[in-house]
Each structure stands twice: as structure tokens, then as C-alpha cells.
Predict the 3D structure of the following.
Amino acid sequence: MKAFWARLSDREKIFVGAGAVVAALFILLQLVLAPAFGWRESVGVRRDRAEELYRLVAQASASAGVVAASAGVDLETPIINVLTQTTGEFGVTVNFRNGRNDGGVDANVAAAGDRLFNWLRALEARYGVSVAAADIARSADGENVQAQLTLVRRTAP
């Protein structure tokens, strides 16, 4: 390398030095600064996703609770039948449903977020069915949600 550098004229040394500076700046920009700026942008996206998940969970939590046995609430129809009867009305797709020994139902459903929560409210108001457990996540399309639900009927004494 010393022999190569010694053969260069002063003018060539300036050009090689300037080229090295440009290459170093390019490498610095691509390997250090670009990922740092990308990280800041991804933090915003992750924050937005976390806020959306919080909103979904808060909305689902508002729908849960103990249902009082009031007039007009059908407490006799089995939950698995209620699930089958009401999903079409609210545009909810049932991917999986399984009856439990306690009369509850485990179900995996997909729908737009507002339709899902309207359906859950209707289950509670019409049939006294509430959500005992829920795992809700946004689908890849960003508009629908996938929900793994445990539906039960709890009545106040």
C-alpha cells in the first residue's frame, strides 16, 4: 500500500483522499444514521399499535361483567346455539367453536372491530352471555380483528 501511495502525485493523493472521505460519509450515512432514523419512525408505529390494542381491550372490558336476569333476556337457549343464531346478523365469522362442560363456549371469531363489539353487546343484552376471557388481535388486513373468546352465562343472584 505504501508503494501505491508513493507513486501518486500530490494531485492524485488529493483525489484519492477526497474519494475516501466521500466513501466514509456514505458508509456512515447508510450504516449508522439511516437505521437510527428508521428506529425512531418504527417507535411511532409501535406506539400507535399499542394504543389501538389498548382501545380494543378497553372496549372488550366494557362489555364484560355479570348480567342481571331481567325481563326479555333469554337465559334458556344454550350459548352454542346463540352463537350460531346471531353471528350472521352481525357479520361475524366463526372460525372455531366448542362447547364446554360448564355450558360455556370457546370460540374463535373474526369481524370488523365495531361489528364484533356490537355482537358481544347484543349477546349480553338478549341472552345474558358475557365474555369470561378474550384474546383479541388485529388481523393482517388492519381492518378486522381475530378474537379467541370464552363465552359464559353468569347471572346475578
The chain has a mean pLDDT of 82. The two ends are 90 Å apart (CA to CA). The CA atoms of residues 112 and 144 lie 4 Å apart. The longest strand covers residues 129-138.
